[in-house]
Amino acid sequence: MFFYRSKWLQNSSIVVQPCSVVERVVSLPLVSSTYGLVSSVYANTKDNHPYLKTACEVAEQGVRTITSVALNTASPILDKLEPQIAIANDLACKGLDRIEKTLPILHHPSEQVCTGRMSRLANTGFRLCPMLKTW
């Protein structure tokens, strides 16, 4: 399934480019960097804790199985709903355009966002634990 959206350029010409709201959200620096951090912690936890690794692998296999069954079952329905899905995707892309303009923080990696927030908190005298003199 390919979706397209029109984008106005400054010289009033229109460029048609592929648009999938899911692909756009995943490609946002804040989302992709956060996903990378969480994936790293997850993999590290599995490597360091054998019992958790076993439980996680069982859960992962269950998710793969359920996803496969759901995809096979939903494919005919999705084919019939493709025009409605395209409209919903286009509206979601337009909404994401507005959100990206409103929240420029989405275009920064999570490390930069956290560092900036922590330094602002430190400058206000906020302490994570009142008993501690420092962070």
From TrEMBL:
The keyword Cytoplasm does not apply. One of its GO terms (cellular component) is lipid droplet. InterPro entries: Perilipin. The keyword Ribonucleoprotein does not apply. Keywords: Lipid droplet. It is found in: Lipid droplet. It holds the Pfam family Perilipin. GO terms for biological process: lipid storage; positive regulation of triglyceride storage. Belongs to the perilipin family. PANTHER family: PERILIPIN (PTHR14024), PERILIPIN-2 (PTHR14024:SF25). This is Perilipin 2. It comes from Neogobius melanostomus (round goby). The lineage of its organism: Eukaryota, Metazoa, Chordata, Craniata, Vertebrata.
